[in-house]
Every structure is written in C-alpha cells, then in structure tokens.
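Quick one: structure tokens for this chain, please?
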Amino acid sequence: MKKLLMIVNEDRFFLSHRKEIALAAQKAGWDVTVVCKDTGRRHEVEEMGLKVLELPINPTGVNPFQELRTWWFLYTLYKKNREAVVHHVGLKNMLWGGLAAKFARVHGVVNAVSGLGTIFSGEKLGMMARGILAVLRFSNKRKRVKVIFQNQEDKDMFLQRGVIEEGQAEFIKGSGVALNDFKYVPESESETLKVVFTARMVKEKGVIELIEAAEKLRKDYEGKLEFWLCGRLAVNFDAVSKEELEARCDGRYIKWLDFQKDIKSILEQCHIMAFPSYYREGVPKSLIDACAVGRPIVTTNSIGCKDVVDDGVNGFLVPVKDSEALAQKLRILIEDKALRVRMGKAAREKAEREFSLEKVIEKHLEIYSRLKIEN
C-alpha cells in the first residue's frame, strides 16, 4: 500500500488546516500516519480512522538538545519507512524533517511553506534566517522533493537564494475552505456590530494594534460595536500574556473569547474581519474562511495577507503596525452597511475562484501520486 507520513507541529493545527487532505489521501488508497504533538486532541484524529504518532517537538523552542531529539526521532522513523512519501508542514518540520529524509534516503518528500514568521520579516535576513536557508538548500538538493508555496514572495526568495530549483516548486494558494460548509451568510441584523479577529494571541498577529484601533473608536461606538478576539494564548517570546489581555479587554466593548472551536458560527455572527498581522504569513486561513462566509476584511498590506484582499473590492489593506489607519478603514465599514454587503459578496466570489478546498486536495493528491510513480 502507498504510505504517507504527514508531519505537523500539533494535533490542533492538523485538525484546522490539514485533516481534509489526509482523509482524502486515505480514501484514495494511501496508508496515512499523522505525526504530531498531542495537545489533548489526538483522540479526535484517531476517531477519524487515522494513525497517529507522537512527535517530540517544541514548536517555538531553540534548545539544541530538544532540536536534536526531534531530528533523531524523524530520522529513525524514516529509516523504517524509506518507501513512504513524507509531507512536512511548517518551517521547523521542513528543517529537521528534510535533513532526516535526506540522510535516511526517503523516497519522496513534500515540504509545505505555510508561513515563515518574523525571522524572515525584515528587509535583510539575519544570521538565523540565512542558516535555515542553507540547511534547506542542502536537504532539498536531491530528486523527488517538492516544495509547496502559498504566496509568490516565499517562492521567489527560495528560488533567488538557490534553496530549490524551479522544477521543485508547487503553488497552492492557502489551505482552502470547504465552500459547501462555509457558505455565504448575509450579515446579522443585530443592532450591535461585531468586528472579529481570529489568531493566536501573539503581537506579530497585530492583536495590540487592533485593541489600539478599538480604543480610538470607543468614544463614537461603545454600545453599538463589539470587538471579539478569538484565539488561544501562546508560549513564544512575543506572546501577549493573559494578564495583559484581561487588562486591555473589558468584556463588553473589547472581548477576549479565547480559543473558539466553531469558528464558522463566530464568522456568521460578525460583520467585519480585522486581521492586522505583520507576521510573515503563508495565506491566513482565518481570512480565507471569512471570505467564504462573505465578510469584508481589513488586513495589512503584507506578505500572505494581501493575497486574500483586493483593496477596495472585498476589503481594505492598511500599513503594518498602523492602528490609526486600521481605525479609519474600520470606521468606513462601520458607517456603510451597503459597502459591507457589497464587499462581503465580493469576498465570497473570491473564495469560490481561488480558495476551494476541493482544488487544494486535488493538487496535493496529484503531487503525492507523482512522487510515488517516480519510485
């Protein structure tokens, strides 16, 4: 049987971003094993009929002994499964998994660049970023390696720095959205408008800028408007602490709702999506989901985010770290229902053109099959 190992940092990311691909591969005859850290949701993956292996990884850590442990685990796993196709999702898994796959001589490798983060966000790359690219350049220099990009900037950087060759690059714009599930829903007729933000509570995602923008609007809209911050706490160095969130969120005008499993219901209740991220995104799934439901978006003119919004058509693009510009664009949408409706419909049309989950699944299965045929 064809064997597929999908390497993902955590079970919750797999469930939100990759489960449909794994299930489709299983249906197509692949023996699928998900390798991820268990954050308490492993049973949900296993209940789908998928095999799960615990991945020893600290997603945000830099301890060399922990990193070596991750690499050694993957190397020994791959040595036993050389005939498999392995699919690494995320930068750290690409880094250690790519090295492990090369030394273990795994048959086929898929590396998915799902966002490069703040390490790669500056105009000039630092020592760590250059080191990561050097390792990836080494591990990718072999046959039967495909690298999936979500935005053109990431692809261009990898090509320009010789990390990959043109023939290794694949382009899939985001993780997709199930359009039959995330259907267009007209905005709520509630007298209280709701602006939603969905992401981990880290500064790079723009949560502080959004709170600042909300405060700039408070005088005019308190009692008529609510800001919903939906996302779990994070553990990386740039995380927003629980204490700071609770101090900044009053529970009425600005609400921190923590992690929300049913994000579709949240989007259906809201009127505007605000996502002022300056993290180097792939293509944010939160924005793709908002498009599908038909919500206008205010996001930054930054890598990944700008791929979801046609400025002035289905939302607005604002400069990064600019709470004043963010507040101004939100004010325009708050004041103009007809514009919200028009942009929301344009968002749905964009989702249907560019973000269909069916197309994402089809492309992944095609890549897997090509690597297996080359065996």
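Residues 337-354 form the longest helix (18 residues).
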